Amino acid sequence: MKDILLKRKTKKPIGNRFSAALIGVSLIFSATAASNENPQAISLREAIVMTLDYHPNLQALVSQERVWQGRIQQASVGERPQVSLMFEDAMGPGERSSPKNMQSTLTYSWLLQQEQIDSRVNVTKSEAAKLALEKQIKALDLSALVAKHYIDVLVKQERLKLNQMAATQAKDVVDAIAKRVKAGKNSSVEVQLAEAELIRRELAVEDVEHELKASQYQLAMLWGKPTQDYRLNGNLLNVPTVPAVESQLALLKQNPRIKQFTTSERIAQSQMELARIEAKPQWEFTAGIRRYEATDDFGLVAGVSIPWGDSNRNAGAIAALKAKQDVLASEQNALMQSLDTQLYVLLQEMAHSQHVIQTVQKEIVPTLEVALFEATNAFDKGQLSYNQFSSVRRELLSAQTQLLEAFESLHLQHIEIQRLTGTSISQ
């Protein structure tokens, strides 16, 4: 046991040992998988692209685009012109009984409605513009979801490595104590305690293995290939820097959820214009030809129809739309304040995670590694009980786990910041 730890001690500098372990696990998993079935290596960007190309939620929005194209086309269709044929002064009594006295009139009528059609098309186009923002929001949410699952898989791979290392160490301890029991230097109770610890470590390995398989399935399901055999070439140690608060707050305006309110206000404005136009009277013109059977003559006929009534009949609808704009402006301010707070908190948490990583990586883990080295020497000389020795090993494993969790938190916080600011999500 002492020789093993000495070899570990001279292999890498203490301060970089856990970093080497994190890098090593990715290489080990990749090499093992490639030697068996040569699975596809997938980067975070590739995982996001495949998800955006496949995911049914986005496909539904693509289909919805065709719906709006049809609505825009339909909005450009006005009322049909009318052709009328009317017979008068025929089939009656007396002089009107003969078709010779009949008058027939053929007319063509149409509405002046181009202004209303143009306004209706503008309203429909404004409403269709919301779909583009919905696609952006869905794409951002899906990209963030992919990134979170991607990080989750990487973290579980590293956690599996940590648990495997702990199980290997526990096995070495069991073997070392067993030899000392045979030599009469230790009690058999310590062997039983060490064996129980080994069982717990092996169980922890099995737990993480099952969790890792489930996470890999969940990730591949996002791009529609849950049974795909793949490996991730991401690296948890490629940590993002903490961005400046001012620059990130400025980017909040790019959030498509904020842009949705602007689009909704434009829609309300277009609807008000349409309501004003619809309140105006629509003039209908008629032109045609009249034939007089008695004299075998023709005459032109023409007319105009102007609706009569109050031109302010849509005043209530217009007032409601103005009030809706005020509501949208208030809701936009409320959302902006909420996002501002979320972003600021995330930036603070990201800075804290970075501080935790630096502290644990450069101070706590190296200190505990030295403590474990000295505890091993003392345990070998019989100067330290098994419980004390195990306590030191557990402290080191706990610190390594804390470091891994800090890396995970930093990545997840960065992903959420990218989602809030509407920027592209990448590792």
Task: Describe the model.
By secondary structure, the chain is α+β, with helices and mostly antiparallel strands. The chain has one domain (2-421): Outer membrane efflux proteins (OEP), CATH 1.20.1600. It is 70% helix and 9% strand. It is built from 10 helices and 6 strands, in the order H-H-E-H-H-E-E-H-H-E-H-H-E-E-H-H. The chain has helices at residues 2-11, 17-36, 44-54, 56-75, 114-182, 188-221, 245-251, 256-279, 315-380, 386-421; strands at residues 40-42, 82-88, 103-111, 230-232, 284-292, 297-305. Strands 2-3-5-6 form a 4-stranded antiparallel beta sheet, with no helix packed on it. Strand 5 and strand 6 form a beta hairpin. It starts with a helix and ends in a 6-residue tail after the last helix. Mean pLDDT is 80; it is low at 1-36.
**Number of helical regions:** 10
Question: What CATH architecture would you give?
Answer: Up-down Bundle
How many strand elements? Answer: 6
* Category from helices, strands and their pairing: alpha+beta
According to CATH, the homologous superfamily is Outer membrane efflux proteins (OEP)
Q: What kind of sheet is the major sheet?
A: 4 strands, antiparallel
The top level CATH class name: Mainly Alpha
Q: What is the distance, rounded to the nearest whole angstrom, between the alpha carbons of the first and last residues?
A: 39 Å
Instruction: Specify the helix fraction band.
Output: 55-70%
Molecular shape: elongated
Element order: H for helix, E for strand: HHEHHEEHHEHHEEHH
Beta-strand residue percentage: 5-15%
What would the average pLDDT be, to the nearest integer? Answer: 80
Unreliable stretches (pLDDT < 50, length at least 5) are 1-36
Domains counted in the coordinates: how many? 1
Radius of gyration over alpha carbons? 39 Å
Strand order of the largest sheet: 2-3-5-6
What is the fold named in CATH at topology level? Answer: Outer membrane efflux proteins (OEP)
